[in-house]
Write a sequence for this structure.
């Protein structure tokens, strides 16, 4: 973070003094790919000149830069410089949220990414009416997210699938009453999995009642993180989930010694790095 702040400071000083070429050289010397893109994007925003992103040789980096600039300047037109449909989707969606204008989603010709744009805007603004702009096949998912997010059963009634509608109401009931047992009555597995994660639990004994191992492990991980109890992680059988549990508790307690319990070398390294910060 300090490195990013320093880069921004150097760039702003050079831009104010009119030394854009010198600022370009500062960006060129950065080896880290993310910081390199971030540097050029910030330079482009400072100069209100998206073409500065062309200094990046890699096409994906260049598109990332255009996306950052479009959002930073609040200018959807910059997104036109991006060739990939996924890149355009991210770009137009980012700008629409940045300037709070969902209508920008209409600039996307690809139906999938246009739907994504409207759904993300709906979730971001908690506005279920925006779900109506999505394709009917994805509308239910949008309504479900908004309904459970806002704890609003009325939105559940807008779901086309009758089973989804019942699942939606059960998820809200479980969330409102903190009753995990209600999740068992949910028919669609994906809805059931989400229900278990939404209910706030602070007692590991409640997790023991969950029949599905994956959901049971998730419950243990959440409780262990919430109360900072390392012993709860030992109840988890799956090694990967157990490592995730140790990782979360280590961060919660800011205790690097807990990182030693992690078996996966990469997760262990990240654990130490996060605590050292």
């Amino acid at each position: 973070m300090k490195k990013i702040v320093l880069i921004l400071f150097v760039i702003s000083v050079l831009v104010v003094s009119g030394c854009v070429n010198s600022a370009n050289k500062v960006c060129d010397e950065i080896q880290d790919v993310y910081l390199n893109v971030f540097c050029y994007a910030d330079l482009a925003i400072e100069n209100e000149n998206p073409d500065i992103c062309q200094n990046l040789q890699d096409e994906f980096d260049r598109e990332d830069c255009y996306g950052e600039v479009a959002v930073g300047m609040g200018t959807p037109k910059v997104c036109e410089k991006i060739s990939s449909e996924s890149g355009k989707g991210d770009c137009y969606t980012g700008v629409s949220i940045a300037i709070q204008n969902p209508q920008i989603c209409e600039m996307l010709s690809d139906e999938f990414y246009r739907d994504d744009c409207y759904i993300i805007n709906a979730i971001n603004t908690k506005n279920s009416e925006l779900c109506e702009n999505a394709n009917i096949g994805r509308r239910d998912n949008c309504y479900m997210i908004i309904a459970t997010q806002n704890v609003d059963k009325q939105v559940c009634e807008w779901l086309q699938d009758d089973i989804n509608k019942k699942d939606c109401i059960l998820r809200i009931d479980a969330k409102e009453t903190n009753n995990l047992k209600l999740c068992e009555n949910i028919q669609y597995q994906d809805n059931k999995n989400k229900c278990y994660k939404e209910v706030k639990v602070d007692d590991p004994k409640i997790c023991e009642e969950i029949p599905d191992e994956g959901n049971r492990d998730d419950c243990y991980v959440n409780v262990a993180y919430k109360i900072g109890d390392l012993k709860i992680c030992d109840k988890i059988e799956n090694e990967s989930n157990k490592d995730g549990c140790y990782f979360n508790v280590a961060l919660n307690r800011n205790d690097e010694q807990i990182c030693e319990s992690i078996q996966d070398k990469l997760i262990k390294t990240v654990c130490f790095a996060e605590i050292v910060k």
User: Anything to note?
Assistant: Confidence is low (pLDDT under 50) at residues 1-20.
